[in-house]
Design a protein that fits this description.
The chain has about 350 residues and is of the alpha+beta class. It has helices at about 35-45, 75, 95-100, 115-120, 135-150, 165-180, 195-200, 215-225, 325-330; strands at about 1-10, 15-25, 25-30, 50-55, 60-65, 70, 80, 155, 185-190, 200-205, 210-215, 235-245, 245-250, 255-260, 265-275, 280, 290-305, 305-315, 315-325, 335-340, 350. The structure holds adenosine-5'-diphosphate and magnesium ion. Magnesium ion binds near residues 37, 38, 157 and 158.
């Protein structure tokens, strides 16, 4: 997917002025509330018209003030999933799902409804009305409806913001697998760095209606480390838990981690703040932290006066955060070998 945007739009006091050339299948638009993300979504989808400029998706010009082109939303074949599912209240789940499908030209129909219903686990819901669905179920139906419209591009405008944490992270694999299975590129809009890390490969960051930078989720998380209340959030996929003295022993690549809150089965996603990791130059004698890992420094970066230490732990990556004086006192450099201590209670299970 290639999207060229060069637009200006004034809304009351707010002015949006964005020029960007984005490509890739999983792109994020990141910015705090009020920065103009939804305005951009409206302009791309055709729900709102720019004051001037140009929008080109792949080879198709969607809007050009100079050439007087302004394709109607349905001609653009761009589907949107909003924060609130906005399902049709008087229709069943099935009718909602097939709404866009029926309006799609037969030559553009390439999504197999059965596969989609399977992927999103919607079969048991098909005959139900939409009023009593849970928030997560509603979002799955909204996503299914968007995909069944056979779009060329899917816009997701904070689709997880209205859900509680647990559900948010349960839905993310659905979002990813649907776009992968049907090869539908997406723009994922959010103000959550963790969602960006899980959903996107690169990011357009906007602030006050202006484009700040094109970056990667990893770079963005590093830049924000010092300012974020929880530092850099390491996202770890831990597998095969075994109960051990009231804790769970999880496999993390070739390592074992002891975690206090867990789940008895399978693979789970955990977050661990860069601030919860304590580094030692020498092996400490007796410590209460249940995890002591041998690691090697592979990279160091700075974020507003804090130092991020990128560690390799038997091939797995971990980012720890220390103040500059600590880095100097411990003479930490690239290739330094260190011990990282992490309490079993420092891991937070996301899904
Ligand atoms: P985001 O999605 O990043 O939170 P929005 O694109 O919704 O931001 O809004 C950007 C700014 O534009 C906000 O300050 C908002 O109040 C303002 N805005 C949005 N729509 C209108 C409108 N129709 N009239 C006036 N101001 C608007
Ligand atoms: Mg918004």
């Amino acid at each position: 997917m290639k999207l060229y945007i060069d637009v200006e739009k004034k809304l009351g006091e707010f002015s949006l002025q964005v020029k960007a050339d984005v490509s890739g299948e999983r792109t994020g638009i990141f910015g705090e509330s009020g920065s103009g993300k939804s305005t951009l979504v409206h302009l791309i989808s055709g729900l709102m018209q720019p004051d001037k400029g140009e929008i080109v998706l792949d080879e198709t010009c969607l809007f050009s003030s100079r050439k007087k082109i302004n394709l109607a939303p349905e001609e653009r074949r761009i589907a949107i999933v909003f924060q609130q599912a906005m399902l049709f209240p008087h229709m069943s789940v099935k009718k909602n799902l097939f709404y866009g499908y029926k309006r799609c030209h037969s030559e553009n129909r390439r999504i197999k409804a059965e596969t989609l219903i399977d992927l999103l686990k919607l079969q048991p819901l098909l005959q139900r009305g939409v009023k009593n669905l849970s928030g997560g179920e509603k979002q799955r139906v909204a996503l299914g409806r968007a995909i069944l419209a056979n779009p060329r591009l899917l816009l997701m405008d904070e689709p997880l913001s209205a859900l509680d944490d647990r559900l948010r992270f349960q839905i993310i694999p659905y979002l990813r697998s649907v776009s992968e299975e049907f090869r539908i590129p997406y723009l994922f809009i959010s103000h959550s760095l963790t969602e960006m890390q899980l959903m996107t490969d690169h990011i357009l960051a906007i602030k006050n209606g202006r484009c700040m930078e094109e970056t990667t989720p990893e770079q963005l998380a590093r830049n924000w480390m010092a300012q974020s209340p929880k530092g850099y959030l390491n996202l770890l996929r831990l597998a095969d838990p075994v109960k051990q003295n009231g804790l769970f022993a999880y496999r993390w690549g070739k390592n074992t981690l002891l975690v206090s809150g867990g789940d008895a089965t399978g693979e789970s996603l955990f977050e661990l703040s860069s601030r919860e990791i304590i580094l030692f130059k020498k092996h400490p004698e007796a410590i209460s932290a249940r995890n002591l890992l041998d690691c090697t420094v592979t990279e160091m970066f700075e974020s507003d006066g804090r130092i991020g230490i990128v560690l390799s732990v038997n091939g797995e990556k971990l980012v720890a955060e220390i103040v500059r004086s600590a880095a100097e006192e411990l003479h930490i450099t690239i290739h330094s070998t260190l011990f990282a201590a992490i309490k079993a209670s420092s891991f937070r299970m996301l899904a």
